[in-house]
Amino acid sequence: MSAQKKLIRQKFRDSVLKRDRSRCVFCKATDNIDIHHITDRTLMPAGGYVKENGIALCPLHMAMAEKFDQSDGEASVELFNPAQLYRKVGSSYDKAVAASQRLER
Q1: Containing structural domain, residue 87
Q2: Contacts of 20 (CB under 8 A, 6+ apart)
Q3: What is the number of other CB atoms lying within 10 angstroms of the CB of residue 75?
Q4: Would you state the pLDDT for residue 40?
Q5: What are the residues whose beta carbons fall under 8 Å from the beta carbon of 24, sequence distance 6 or more?
Q6: pLDDT at 76 over 80
Q7: 58: exposed, middle or buried (C-beta count within 10 Å: 0-12, 13-18, 19+)?
Q8: Helix %, strand %, coil % for the chain, to 5?
Q9: Which are the contacts of 47, defined by CB distance < 8 A and separation ≥ 6?
Q10: Beta bridge partners of 37
């Protein structure tokens, strides 16, 4: 991985953690927090490495978000659909795309 790519990924992680106060946005846990791309990075300009497309989650909620991603919209994990996650962090798909396009430049 290039140094520039590492820097972009680190800035993404740091900005999401700062916004979400280094806590899971669902349960407020502070241990083992990871960053989830709300819209898959392969579907976003420049990989979607912008805080508008990220959310801080604990391992339990990360697993639920990943289950939603793989479930084709299973009702038991509906809270983890992208529209809900964007609302949870005050963002939207359109905001994430616009921020990602600025990153591309």
Answers
A1: 3-104
A2: 55, 56, 89
A3: 6
A4: 94
A5: 30, 33, 56, 57, 58, 61
A6: no
A7: buried
A8: 60, 10, 30
A9: 8, 41, 100
A10: 54
The whole-model pTM stands at 0.91
Pairing of strands 54-57, 34-37: antiparallel
Structurally, how many domains does the chain consist of?
1
Q: Which residue type sits at 53?
A: N
- 25: number of Cβ within 10 Å: 19
Token readout for 96 is 């994430």
DSSP helix/strand/coil, 49: coil
SS3 35: strand
